[in-house]
Design goal:
Strand content of chain B: 15-25%
Number of strands of chain B: 9
Radius of gyration of chain B: 20 Å
Shape of chain B: globular
Largest interface: A-B, 43 and 39 residues
Number of strands of chain A: 18
Oligomer: heterodimer
Radius of gyration of chain A: 37 Å
Helix content of chain A: 40-55%
Largest sheet of chain A: 7 strands, mixed
Number of helices of chain B: 8
Distance between the termini of chain B: 52 Å
Number of helices of chain A: 27
């Protein structure tokens, strides 16, 4: 059973691509070998900055010999047909055998495919795999046309078994496979000759290359945490950075350095961001003070001075970086002290948010007024919410956020505290962006909730107004994310807001702020759509008089609000689906009153799903469907709607009177339950209909001979339908 | 860094690079005589990366980035600085080794320092050019940009050029152990008249910072931009055949000069803060359009491997 060892040795592969590339190599090679008829016991792939390596163990030495029989033309078929058959099988007429078939004598060919050696197969498949390797980004170099992630220098490809090792001979773009590679670029650059994977890994180890990225990461983490621990410190965990750094070195050497005393007072997020983004350093924290006091860097080599020169260089670079950060921080503090956060935000007047939606400053004005309106509904103080909205985006104009965009919000919190604003306002500055991902925490503090909702609703309404809605996979303004944010914030905080009126009111304020209008004033404005207006007028020339007319006459009307609500409902479906709630269950709740209150809608939907999951619920649903079907058929046939109140006096027998009694009771229970929004109670009440309805259908014939009885029974079915529809439209539910 | 072969001045580092790359067969060119933002703008790189003709050149290029002006006060930032540029087409297989050799030549001891090639794909939106490569780190500091050009002016580079760009001041400060660029010895400190970088450039940094940020006349600059754009188009609209000599003379280089000019004027306008975020993209697009047209013209010329 031979083992295969393969290594593709190149110039430095980007760290972020290495793991995926190793996995791809394993998949592509093993798939190709299996496809060619070989089997193997195990395979493993490895990566370093300069190499992808693969070991395939327990490979079959040869692919099996395969015989295949093919049926050809009839023996009396034209000569041409036979020629074609011979050509396609590569045989001569003597090789064929004539046999009786259903339709007469037919030529049969026996084709034997000889088994091939593993070496032949590997040599055949490798060039194609290399040529078509799925790098996220690849390049050409020199005068060649081969594409690889960076110039490919050598290929090691060895098959070994008890008898010894041999090179699998193949060539691509002038590179011939061999049994040699190189060690560490600086510490052991000499050529190595290897015979097996074990030999390879050992020799690389001696040549200062740790082949396994996981092992490199473990070494780095263990050395870093030990080093920090010895000083009473701890390394700030950062898995992404660890994986990246493990992909930047073949021989990790962990070094710990000092952050200059001048910089220790910078916010820890600033230190961390600057060190991680620019230098790929880990932050080392003092657990007692919570401050970042030192850093860990990972070098790619040992040196005679134990890394002293390397560490000195790194500290120097860091000092230059942090001087910049400190400079930005101090400038920002100076700005806030002299002109306040509002002053800092002043340049946002010149920053376009979107050509049709005005500047960032205008957007902040809108969000502030909306946050004020939302505040009382989410338990926040209106003034505080408006103030928070005014300053929450001021940090976008700070020098720090200009340099480190990922610190938006984080700096906002610090700067709000510098200005002496309340904790609630500072918190809102940071958390109003959340949630950004589906698993992010949502803001819960009332002021943050008000600003976060206002921010997202402004985005949604604005882009809806200018008809920049998401289509298919395109959602350049992240409107789906904003909608999900609104849903999650409301649901988690049980924030009850009727969105329809809010959106209508808000869109009216949105439009005059963003459209161009006014020169014509009130008199000559033509009724038209927003789109027409936005093309027609210039943004800056808006007067108050003009704004009013725009609001009245071409506001974002009921249709657009309905469309936006439908989008929110669609996102709610996607959101609830992850909780196992079917889309048709939501559809059954959508037509119910107050569907623009997303919390109410979600509660109703969850209760309905829970109800349908019970035996009573499932049976009642089929009872409802049966009633509904009969009604639909008969109403269509008769051309009338059976909407009269059924008369209990016309009932014949217990099964029928029981239904009347049950309906009376259920209706009496449902009304207050729905009033109290206790959907579970309403559903439980409905459950008591199940038995009488089942019995009714068992014992009673709806289409009675007596026309009066029949009509009364159809009206009774209608009453069942109406009663149940007060809770949800059960006919929307599938199955 | 106190090695015996350590260079003693900024200019010695430049001279050693010149000697090193000269010995490796590069034509040592002089700086291009126009204001550019980076060594890549030199036609010896931008235009010569196009076409099939082999090429090897190295040169110092004074580079101007008006927005980086700090009145000579920032230890690392300058509005005028030097880049060292090497361009070899086709890129030789041992370019990384050649590059590392150049670091040794200027006094970086490979046994003591940690040199790393960290992914950094290069893209110049104004030149319509991109390539893959790395920023080279020495002890965590970026000392060079290393790029395999893939496209310039919208054309696939065939063969591929290898480009090395050294940020000379930063690299020299590190090698010479200087913390503030103005303190760096420009010539040998033992010279009869020792000159520091500051002796030569502190005043000019102040003058240009003031002019770049506050004084440059934006109306004039806007006009310069438009003039350069128009002239570039006009040059390229001329027929290839010169009516006077009867020869085929495609004026790719004079047109490209106008593109360089427009690019620098744009940088000045940017420093004056008169270009809004939305306009920015439009200006970059206009310069790119010029670069593209110049590339279109150059690939028709003999220097790009076309028969005369």
């Amino acid at each position: 059973m031979p083992d295969l060892l393969l290594e593709l040795f190149s110039e430095e592969i980007p760290a972020r691509m290495q793991t995926r590339a190793a996995d791809d190599l394993k998949r592509l090679v093993t798939d190709a070998l299996v496809e060619a008829g070989l089997t193997y016991e195990s395979a493993g792939a490895f990566s370093t900055p300069r190499r992808l390596a693969l070991t395939v163990e327990g490979l079959t030495a040869m692919s099996p010999t395969l015989t295949e029989e093919r049926k050809g033309p009839r023996t009396d078929a034209p000569e041409k047909a036979l020629e074609g058959f011979l050509r396609s099988t590569g045989l001569t007429k003597d090789d064929l055998e004539a046999r009786d078939d259903k339709k007469g004598q037919v030529w049969f060919a026996k084709i034997t495919r000889e088994g091939r050696t593993a070496s032949e197969i590997i040599a055949e498949v490798m060039p194609g795999i290399i040529q078509n390797f799925p790098w996220p980004k690849s390049m050409r170099w020199g005068a060649g046309s081969l594409r690889w992630v960076r110039p490919l220098h050598s290929i090691l490809c060895v098959l070994s078994d008890e008898a010894g090792a041999s090179v699998v001979p193949f060539e691509i773009a002038g590179i011939s496979a061999s049994d040699t590679t190189h060690g560490h670029r600086f510490m052991a650059p000499a050529q190595l000759r290897v015979t097996s994977f074990e030999d390879y890994q050992q020799k690389l180890g001696r040549a200062h290359v740790v082949l396994d990225a996981g092992a490199r990461a473990e070494t780095i983490w263990a050395d870093a945490t030990n080093m920090a621990f010895a000083q009473g410190l701890e390394v700030v965990e950062d898995k992404g950075l660890l994986a990246e750094v493990a992909g930047l070195v073949e021989w990790p050497v962990v070094l710990m350095g000092d952050i200059g005393a001048d910089f220790l007072d910078l916010p820890p997020e600033v230190l961390q961001t600057s060190m991680r983004e620019h230098q790929k350093f880990f932050s080392v924290r003092n657990p007692k003070t919570g401050r970042i006091e030192r850093y860990v860097t990972v070098a790619n080599r040992e040196t005679a001075d134990n890394g002293a020169t390397i560490l000195a260089g790194n500290s120097k670079v860091l000092a230059a970086r942090l001087s910049d950060a400190k400079f930005f921080w101090e400038n920002d503090l100076r700005t806030i002290r002299s002109v306040g956060l509002e002053g800092m935000a002043k340049p946002l007047e010149n920053v376009t948010f979107h050509a049709k939606l005005g500047t960032q400053a205008e957007r902040i004005d809108r969000i502030a007024s909306l946050a004020r309106e939302i505040a009382p509904r989410v338990g926040a103080d209106a003034d505080e919410a408006a103030q928070a909205a005014r300053v929450a985006k001021a940090d976008l104009a700070s020098e720090m956020v200009y340099e480190f965009p990922e610190l938006q919000g984080v700096m906002g919190r610090y700067y709000a505290k510098v200005q002496g604003l309340s904790d609630a306002v500072a918190e809102a500055a940071q958390t109003h962006y959340a949630p950004l991902g589906p698993s992010d925490d949502v803001p819960t503090e009332p002021v943050s909730v008000a600003v976060a909702l206002a921010d997202k609703i402004d985005t949604l309404t604005g882009f809806w107004a200018i008809d920049e809605k998401p289509t298919g996979s395109k959602d350049p303004f992240a409107l789906r994310r904003a909608a999900l944010g609104v849903i999650r914030i409301m649901e988690q905080g049980k924030k009850r807001i009727r969105l329809r009126q809010l959106l209508l009111n808000y869109s009216a304020t949105l439009i005059p702020d963003t459209i161009a209008f006014a020169k014509e004033g009130e008199k000559t404005l033509e009724v038209g759509s927003y789109k027409l207006l936005s093309n027609k007028f210039d943004l800056k020339e808006l007067t108050k008089a003009g704004r009013r007319v725009v609001i009245q006459r071409c506001g974002f009307g009921g249709n657009e609000v309905g469309d936006l609500l439908a989008f929110l409902h669609e996102r709610l479906k996607v959101h609830l689906r992850s909780d196992g709630i079917r889309h048709d269950v939501i559809d059954a709740c959508l037509p119910m009153p107050q569907n623009d209150d997303l919390v109410l809608l979600a509660n109703r939907t969850r209760a309905l799903q829970a109800f349908l999951d019970t035996e009573d619920g499932a049976n009642l649903l089929s009872g409802y469907k049966r009633a509904n079907n009969i009604l639909n058929v008969e109403e269509k046939k008769d051309g009338v709607s059976y909407e009269l109140d059924p008369d209990p006096k016309l009932s014949e027998g217990e099964a029928e009177t029981d239904i009347f009694t049950a309906l009376d009771q259920v209706e009496a229970t449902i009304a207050p339950a729905l009033e109290a929004e206790d959907f579970a109670a309403a559903m439980t009440a409905l459950a008591s209909l199940r038995a009488p309805i089942d019995t009714f259908f068992d014992k009673v014939t709806v289409n009675a001979d007596s026309a009066i009885v029949r009509r009364n029974r159809l009206c009774l079915l209608n009453r069942i339908r109406v009663t149940m529809n007060r809770v949800a439209i059960f006919s929307e539910i599938e199955g | 860094m106190a090695q015996t072969n350590a260079p003693r001045s900024f200019q010695e580092i430049i001279l050693r690079l010149q000697t090193y790359w000269s010995a490796r067969g590069c034509a040592i060119l002089q700086p291009y005589d126009m204001e550019v933002g980076a060594g890549t703008f030199h036609p010896a790189t931008t235009l010569r990366a196009l076409g099939s003709t082999a090429w090897a050149a190295a040169y110092v290029q004074p580079s101007r980035r008006p927005t980086d002006g700090r009145y000579g006060e920032n230890p690392n930032r300058l509005q005028h600085y030097y880049q060292y540029q090497v361009i070899i087409k086709p890129s030789p297989p041992d370019l990384q080794a050649l590059y590392l050799g150049s670091l040794e030549a200027i006094g970086v001891d490979m046994d003591l320092h940690d040199i790393r090639f960290v992914e950094d794909d290069w893209e110049s939106p104004t030149l319509g050019a991109w390539g893959l490569g790395w920023e080279v780190w020495c002890d965590g500091m970026e000392v060079s940009q290393f790029t395999y050009f893939q496209q310039v002016g919208g054309y696939d580079c065939k063969p591929v050029s290898g480009e090395l760009t050294y940020g000379l001041e930063r690299l020299a400060m590190y090698i010479l152990g200087v913390d503030h660029v103005m303190d760096m010895p420009f010539n040998d400190p033992q010279s009869p008249i020792p000159l520091s970088y500051g002796d030569i450039f502190r005043q000019t940094e102040q003058e240009y910072s003031r002019w770049n940020f506050d004084v440059a006349d934006t109306d004039t600059l806007l006009k310069h931009f438009e003039d350069a754009e128009a002239e570039c188009a006009r040059i390229l609209a001329e027929p290839a055949e010169d009516p006077k000599t009867g020869k085929r003379i495609v004026m790719a280089h004079p047109a490209y000069d106008q593109c360089i000019k427009a690019s620098h004027v744009f940088n000045l306008l940017d420093a004056r803060g008169v270009i809004s975020v939305t306009e920015r993209q439009a200006y970059i697009g206009r310069v790119r359009a010029l670069a593209k047209q110049c590339a279109d013209a150059f690939v028709q010329t003999e220097a790009a491997g076309q028969a005369a």
